[in-house]
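User: Hey, my collaborator sent me this sequence without any context and asked if I could get a structure. I don't really work with proteins. Can you help?
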Amino acid sequence: MRYGFDCGIWGNLFGVPTIIADNFLKIADSSQLKVLLYLLRNNGKTFEISEIANALDISEDTVCDSLLFWQQYNILPSDETGTMAEVNSIFSAPPAEKYEYIPENQNDSYLRNSSEGLNITPSEIADMINSTPKLNELLVVAQKYFENFNFATQRSLVWIYQYLGLPAEVILMILEYCSSLKRLYIWEIEAIAVDFRKNGIDTPKLAEVAIEHMRDYAENASFITRIKRMFDMQRAPVTKQRKYIMNWKSENYPYELIQLAYDKAVEKTGNNARIPIEYIDTILKRWKEKNISTVEEAEKDDLDFKNVFGKKKKKKV
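Assistant: No problem. I've predicted the 3D structure and written it out in structure-token form, which is a compact way to encode the shape of the chain:
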């Protein structure tokens, strides 16, 4: 039996970018796809985390995880004010165009965003490998990163090397970075390569700096997201809150200790309607001054303080 889809009987339709259908149906889970489809269906509108959760009948934690998934792949941006950016701005890149392969002397007027339009055959790649030692070395080393080093992968690397003009050393650094994150997706490798090309990142030294910044950004985003979930924050942290949170990251406070400080701050203030972030920071700094680095040490310190305070109170009576 063959299956198809008759759009006519369904009335109004909404678009799903081809990058989603081509690259994410295998790696995105059902909740992640639900969240993205909901935002695409409501193009131009903005929503709170709780509104998305209620609409899809999933937990707010699941919504946060799903949004982070799309943000990590640069599919969905987030706005610094804490509300989701408009969906119609998500896919602002122009559609890929077909073009003839230009082996050398490229310039930005020919630049495209992917290798999809590169008309080249396996035999032509073989000829290029035989005539270009550097390209041959690149493909030989690149094989170790891919379980299936197929024609599409080879075409992509040829496109990055010959068309974008990135040196083999820089391309291998991109592969190493994507491999370390377990995100060896052709479209993502090409996106990084295009970004490098447009920004003049064409030496190993410049690439090393750029990749370090990318790692820092990803780590910071992951840390902030985890704190948001821990504190049940419905919006992205404002600038002042972000400074405190990033300082906790630089101080290497364990998540468990931050959670305990949050619980004690909420207990002290009586509610968690407003995140007592300054008080949390005060608790963490006090523990650091006492060389307290575990939950057990913090709990013991709190108990010792209560015992001392209780004895002093009895003496006064």
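In plain terms: Residues 204-230 form the longest helix (27 residues). You can pass these tokens on to your collaborator as they are.
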